[in-house]
Amino acid sequence: MAAKIADEEDLMEFDSDPYLTPDSTMTQPSPSSQSSPSHNQSSISEPVTEEETQYSLPTLKETPSPKASVPEVEEVGVGQESDEELLPQTGDHPVRSISERKKARKMVFSSWIAQHAATVTKERVREIVENTEEPFLSIRNLMSKQESNVIISDPREYQVELFEKAKQQNIIAVLDTGSGKTLIAVLLLRYMLDRELENRQLRGYKPKTSFFLVDCVTLVFQQFAVLECNLDQNIERFCGEMGCDLWSKSVWQQLFKDNMVVVCTAEILYQCLMHSFISLDEINLLIFDEAHHAKKNHAYARIMKDFYMLELNLEKRPKVFGMTASPVDAKQDVVEAAKQLEAMLDCQIATAADLSLLRMSVSRPKESAITYKRLRPAYLTPLCARLKETFEDLESVRRVLAFSMRATSELGEWCADHVWRIALKEEEARKIERKTERLYITASEGRFSGALDAELDRIRKAQQFVDRWNFLETPNASLPNNISSKVSLLIQYLQLIFRKSSSTRCIIFVKRRYTARLLAEMFSRIDIPNLKLGLLIGTRPGDAGDLKISFRQQVLTLRDFKEGSINCLFATSIAEEGLDIPDCNVIVRFDLYATLIQYIQSRGRARHAESQYIHMLEENNMLHIQALRDVRSGEDVMRRFCEALPADRLLQGNDCNLESVLAKEKSMRRYTEPETGATLTYTSSLVVLAHYVSCLEYLDKPKTSATTSTNGHETPAAASTNQPQHERNGIMLQPNYFMTTENKRFICEVVLPEQAPIRSAVGRPASTKAIAKRSAAFEMCIQLRKGDHLDGNLISTRRRFIPANANAMLAVNLKKRTEYGAKLKPRLWEDSRGCFPKKLYLTVFKLAEPENLLRPSQPLALVTRTPLPNFPPINLHLPLDKTSQALSISITSCLNVTESIVSTLNNFTRCIWRDIYAKTFEDNIPQMSYWFAPILKDVVIDNHSAVPASLIDWDVLRYTDLHNFENPIKWTVNMPDTELEDRFVVDPGQGARRFYSAKVNSTLRPNDQVPCQDLQGNVSMESILEFSRNYKRSPSEKRSPKWEEDPNQPVVQAHLISHRRNWLDSWNDSTSKDPEIPCYICPQRMHISSLPIPVVAMGYLLSAIIHRIESHLITLEACDLFGLTVRSDLALEAMTKDSDNTEEHRSEQIHVQRGMGKNYERLEFIGDCFLKMATSIPIYATQQDHDEFQYHVARMEMICNKNLLETALKLGLPEYIRDRGMTRTGFYPQGIKLLVGKGITPTSAAQKHSLGDKTIADVCEALIGAALLSYHDTKDMDMAVKAVSKMVSNKVHAVNKWSEYWPLYVKPPWQLATATASQLDLAAQIERKHKYHFRYPRLLRSAFMHPSYPFLYEKVPSYQRLEFLGDALLDMACINFLYHRHPDKDPQWLTEHKARSDV
């Protein structure tokens, strides 16, 4: 809300401040500080001076509008005090001392800063929307992105002219489609909003709202997008699909308070006025889009007749502005229709004074008529004849049959036959069956009979008959009657216009959806160059086979049309009025228009320069010729009528017309609630009554899970008579109207369901059935109000009960990523450090296929302070595309050690770090987490009986200890050549260079040229000596005498070891597949390692092995957070995310971390399924008084990503998730200082990682899957059940064992009651089929009980609750089978095949 300023004195104080602009004083008063005008006060209660009425046309360069410049402060909510209320009050106004005025200025400035920050945020949001791919945007953002260009830039002269007229009086702007009528509305809204702000702030008037009314949901989003980017004030949009009927008066009033402009369907405003959520004097402007709809009982007309015209105080009436391309939308006299529209909207029609300017601004297409040969009479194709003969009495078949016969004439046999493939394909047949079943049961009061089964069976047979029919796949013009002359002409024309270019944009208008679908299907099978087809039809469901097109699909289709991926649309009337369609250059009226406005609006789509508008006429068809003449003459009459309007024309004669408009209404009663002003009319009574009856389906409040019976014992609520209301009666509740006649007049009785407190009411006699029906509804509403069953706003006092969190935001943001700490080392290392150990434990690692390493290797042991668990084999990728598993054996017996032994192990370990990995660590035994030890070759190891000391190769340890850091091995002149053979040689100057020596080559000297020319790296090749000492030195250092070496030292034949970083990943680099490169070196500057080559060969693999072992330990610690005991391989798989979009199956993975093994996606898939099943069972067992909808809500509260995320964050799970592959820098012993080499510092970025909310929730589900599969062999699901309880953290699921589910279920009395003969017979039939004996036939009967079947007939609830439980169990059974049968398939494949299994 804006800062609150009480009076003009204070405004003057603000104006005197040099740091505040005049606009900054225009702040919105709070309701508490406004001077509330009396009830009969007009919206503008004092004369407005000429200076005040001066209004310059807004442009983009003008001073920002009030919203952009008015400082705002935080909104004052319930329980808060406004800043002004905190000031001391004296009389009617606050005390205005100097200090208080300074405080107010400070408040304004602070709020301006806050608003500026909000503006920046909004700009950032817009930037994100602009950069996001459109398929991922909401409808609101899709529309705003398409309407991102501000339309108010340079208004044309005729637009300014009409805007000025609209300021002075109510007008209906009649302009062609595409001429910018909405621009005029935006200008008028800006003007009215400025006036409104002045009235609120300077005069203290109560707030008013401007309404932009539209005829359909489509236009709500479209016009909202246009207004949102052109108005600075708050704006909101509403339509029936948003569930507005559930909103209370307080909700609506808050919405009107928060928004100065509302875009909504007219029905929304009509109901708000009817229920007195808003009154007419709280509205300052009504804009009617497509104003020609204002007639009869349309919501436009009802608003005007029921509220506007009955407000006798003209000053309380809002300004009215209508927009239309033509005031006529039916076949009637143009002038008479225009006068009626003027009377209905209390406006005068206005158009551009100089129509030539309009024609210059809006391109008119070149119109032409093309004729096709006379069509053949309609007839039956062989397929239609067979279907008519057998199935004509079926309603669903009869409708399609009528179209198919018509199509033989208009479209041809190909379309006439193919419509059956559309209307009776398998999924459409199911829809027809459901609709037939619903209508039949409703008509027969819910009783099943054999007749219904017979009819459903015939529908299935019709569908099967169509499936077996041999259809001609491709249309063939050479076959007689296969394509009609009308379609043939269209084919020729499209071939002509698309032959040269694909830049053509064409819309082909047809009357029926079937026609659009069939033509689109036909042309997709005809080869026309550059033709890219699309389909644009309405969103409302129609007959069998109709596509259910969403508004989002319409928007995306139009986007493709705009961008050119579609260049030809087959469209129904939806493309004439409603959607904003890009300019076209070809419009084809395949089916001619029925009214003048259809002609004008469809022609308005051809706004492109040099566009064409084609009328398709049948040869010698006088009806077609007359239709063309009628629209042209009608437009000419309309144009002359508008041109003849005088400039200063008043609404003369409208009073008389107004009387005629209201004449029919006078015979219809109306009721106005004295306290609230809510109004009931004949028309609105139908809506009020329907809403009241729908509320009978819901309980006022949820029942508790148990009730007390007469004997004092607790029984389940479902066992009592408090059965859910909709389950007790089954059929969807609605009022029933029964019509009779008396003295040639109609009398209607309305009967409500048995739950209603008043069952029936009879209306007054009426001349028509429609009025009689309204009279009965009106009478019933009056009785309900008298009995307090309707409240003062004519809303049912029996509110709809919606379960808690039914509309809660339970999803997580798929794009949101948060930075968390990343656990690099297991807690085990840290917990065991700090002293000299007395006991150590060995975990031996050896290769399963050691020959694949290409060099002899020796097993190594990881020596730890505490015993380690057994780890699964680790897959290693060795040179030359070979692999081997590293096997781990954890020795259970401990190794008793002395300080000397530990020191020896420490020297050996530091030697491995230094010589193999070029890292030197401080000598700090108490802080060492682990050590390495060589293991004897070919020793047989039994992890239970092995003695650790007998496994260690003590000779290697002693030799390494002898040549420790203080006594390294170096070449001397007296060293025999044999000491240089089969050694591991390290280049101390360049850490990456390591060599395996072979033998001394006595034929070569140090200064000889290097004989091998295929060495890698940037090395000097001048001589063997230069190559040997090619560590990183400057050229001057290399020439320095101190670097001179013995020219007689031997030359050793060796192999340069390739620099392999990640043994967990395959060798994808072809240049590094050769693991050893022949070379020659001189030993003087080299260090000769004390490590034997077999130890070195295995030591190179330690980085990968230890990385994987640490990952296992970290993920097992994550399982400990939840108290879960899980197999280590499954724990690691559940916690592994190997790319930024792991969850996007079959998509190209982004930032893939190689060598991480399996990721969590499969475990998450089966874990999600088990989670669904596990939570469904206790919900079903403990909440027997709830319905299926409440079940879904309760389950969603537990299994939603938001709940799983919250649980994970409480326990700190994100830091345990593995999302990075192995790196050599990450291979280090935690706790000791790194002296030489590369490692991870405490401030390194590696200690943090960014994770999406969805990823964390998925990992929770994967852990459930891991807990389930860890005990798959034993069929034990207790650990998985425990995992679910930990993850959902909900009292409904408080079990930790599978066996604890059963005691939760208490059998309700209806299940235990004696079964009837029919129920026993049903059980017997099922047992013969499935060989399973049902102990409770009534429970089985419930599984066959349709929701529309009344509970009272058999006292058995419908199958919906059992279906909820059965669906979860079936999912689990299918997924479990597929998961284990196909261990290599991804979740996408499993999902697809699960769906087939469900079918």
Provide a short characterization of the protein structure:
The chain has 1399 residues and is an alpha/beta fold.
Low-confidence stretches: 1-96, 649-656, 699-731, 1036-1042
Helix percentage: 40-55%
* Share in β-strands: 5-15%
Structural class of the helices, strands and pairings?
A: alpha/beta
Compute the gyration radius: what is it? 42 Å
Give the biggest sheet.
7 strands, parallel
Overall number of strands: 37
Question: What is the overall shape?
Answer: elongated
What's the average pLDDT?
78
Number of helices: 47
Strand order across the largest sheet? 5-6-4-7-8-3-9
Termini Cα gap: 55 Å
What report would you give on this structure?
There is one protein chain. This protein has 1399 residues and is an alpha/beta fold. 40% of the residues lie in helices and 12% in strands. It is built from 47 helices and 37 strands. The strands form 10 sheets. It has a 7-stranded parallel sheet with strand order 5-6-4-7-8-3-9, with helices on both faces. The protein has a 6-stranded parallel sheet with strand order 10-15-14-11-13-12, with helices on both faces. Strand 5 (235-238), helix 9 and strand 6 form a beta-alpha-beta unit. Helix 10 (266-274) packs parallel to helix 11 (299-308) and helix 35 (1102-1121) packs across helix 36. Mean pLDDT is 78; it is low at 1-96, 649-656, 699-731 and 1036-1042. GO terms for molecular function: ATP binding; DNA binding; helicase activity; metal ion binding; ribonuclease III activity; RNA binding. Belongs to the helicase family. Dicer subfamily. Residues 162-345 form the Helicase ATP-binding domain. Keywords: Antiviral defense, Antiviral protein, ATP-binding, Helicase, Hydrolase, Magnesium, Manganese, Metal-binding, Nucleotide-binding, Repeat, RNA-binding.
